[in-house]
Prior knowledge:
Elements: H1 2-46, E1 56-63, H2 71-86, E2 88-95
Parallel strand pairs: 1-2
Amino acid sequence: MKKKALSKMAAVILAVSTVLCACGNESRGQAEAEKEEQADQTVAEESKEPAADEPYTIVYAFDVWVQQADWDLVEENLSNIVEEKIGAKVELLPRC
């Protein structure tokens, strides 16, 4: 008898908690949807494409043991090659 009453009570508690959880998430879901929509608008505004004649700049930072005198020459030649291939410039940032 106690098992039967206990299982019915557990079923009622489960049903009530399911209903309450379903109702509680609806308003929270709308707020999250509004936040997500605002974030999408912000990303769309920030990700405007640069002008077609303005190439992208790839910044490559790396660690070196000894600073070389010809990094500027290497950067210039690498930038020329990459600009021909994919239309981007390269900026090297060697760090000692």
